[in-house]
Amino acid sequence: MAKKSKKQQQSGGTPATVALTAAGVEFTVHSYDHDPSHPSYGEEAAEAMGVSPDRVFKTLVADVDGALVVGVVPVAGSLDLKALATAVGGKRAAMADPVLAERTTGYVRGGISPLGQRRKLRTVLDESASSHTTICVSAGRRGLEVELAPEDLAKLTEATLAPIARA
Q1: How far apart are CA 9 and CA 6, in angstroms?
Q2: Residue 156 pLDDT grade (very low, low, confident, very high; cuts 50, 70, 90)
Q3: CA distances (Å), 35 to each of 8, 40, 110, 136, in order?
Q4: 138 with 22: CB under 8 angstroms?
Q5: CA dihedral defined by 55, 58, 64, 69, rounded to 10 degrees?
Q6: Structure confidence at residue 1 (pLDDT)
Q7: Strands lying side by side in the sheet with 28-31
Q8: 57-61: long-range contacts at Cβ-Cβ below 8 A with a sequence spacing of 24 or more?
Q9: What distance in Å separates the CA atoms of residue 98 and residue 157, rounded to the nearest whole number?
Q10: Do 113 and 144 meet the contact criterion of CB atoms below 8 Å apart?
């Protein structure tokens, strides 16, 4: 987990929620009890919040031609690695080593947020996000999600919108 400043520790915020607050973006925090035995972090979040899985997005870190890239896709589907590589002008993509993803983002697997990362990575948001008024993404730890407008997420992460999800 990323080191928290005293202000973050006092407020109980994560780097993601601190970044949203600092940017003046409207968002809602959803908290739920994480079940470590659940087979899918994203599906667990959707179920716990009572939100359709096509509105809850997971943050995945991939290696595209030697560079780490974030793909943000609905939990109802999966990341199309070839489409992700194409979206960033690359040729080959593979899922990043989980330890490297955690070390680079400052978050633990299952709690990686596209916001407030230790090292800001190039981000691609699946274009389906645009069809929703709000979407949910990890707030930086398991059992914590933020709901925000997809336009705000794209702006804050400087994301490219592209069709990178498979059903």
Answers
A1: 5
A2: very high
A3: 25, 10, 11, 18
A4: no
A5: 90
A6: 31
A7: 28-31, 144-148, 135-141
A8: 57/125, 57/126, 57/129, 57/135, 57/136, 57/137, 58/137, 58/138, 59/112, 59/113, 59/114, 59/137, 59/138, 60/95, 60/112, 61/95, 61/96, 61/100, 61/101, 61/104, 61/105, 61/112, 61/121
A9: 21
A10: no
How many other C-beta atoms can be found within 10 angstroms of the C-beta atom of residue 83? 18
Say if residue 163's pLDDT is above 80: yes
